[in-house]
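Here is one chain, start to finish.
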Amino acid sequence: MSFRALVAERAADGAVTTTLQDLQDDILLDGNVSVRVEWSNVNYKDAIALAGMQIIQTFPLIPGIDFAGTVEASSDPRFQPGDAVVATGWDLSQAHHGGYAQRARVPGDWLVKLPAALDARAAMAIGTAGLTAMLSLLEVERHGVAPGDGDVLVTGASGGVGSVAVALLSGRGYRVVASTGKPAEAEYLRALGAAEIIDRATLSAQGAPVQAERWAATLDAVGGQTLVNALAQTRYRGIATTCGFVGGRELPGTVLPFILRGVTLAGIDSVRASAALREQAWQRLAADLDLAKLAATTHEIGLGEVPAFTARMLQGQAKGRTLIDVNR
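Its structure:
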């Protein structure tokens, strides 16, 4: 059976090029579940993968770290034809064909059955970004930070993780302060539930190692100096979660917030999170996330539009969630 896919290849000069191709099923890699893909999306990791930044480990490869669709065939007893499923992370777009295609074959361990409240499109509006936001919220809750304990900071708030985090936190009753470098997105963030908007410049410059206490918790998607300042402003026994490095991979700070205030820094990994944790997170997303708010964060493109869009994303010209209709 033939299907259409976006294929990434490495050129002689080392550049990554992508083309739409018609492929046959025999190109699909090992897996015990075959899925008719309906929707995928674009994450920052997808953008840097197509830019050639050492995400894709073997070429040619179908990129796309997320997909959602319907099981067509399965030798895994957990999945039956007709099941609605979602896949995020694992080796997708690294060593295994990903979601930028009309068909996929993967190990059953990589799949989660979609809760009844979510269809494939909604699942991809959530995607890795939303899963990461929910894993961050679960970590904050496990730490004991409750609504009413104080302001919660979300950095990179107009991005994919940040947008969903603002909606989730506000829906749970937290007072959310959204940090963004895009003043024009203030109303967008308020519509998602942000109580206050601050300019990212207030967090991106070097500051004192310990600063006035403000945040009961931080959900950071930026890293670098922004995370250092957020930690320096975190309240006694507070927590910061971190999941991104668009602001830098370095952590140019000190141990003082940890020693003097007992602050916790928790790394969030959505790529290899356990099946049980993923299932918990997807159930909570289905229950907690206001899908009407989610709809306001999304727009759609077709497979052929992905390379141009990821280039704009790396230039900071994207907000919210970008869905890919793989049949368009």
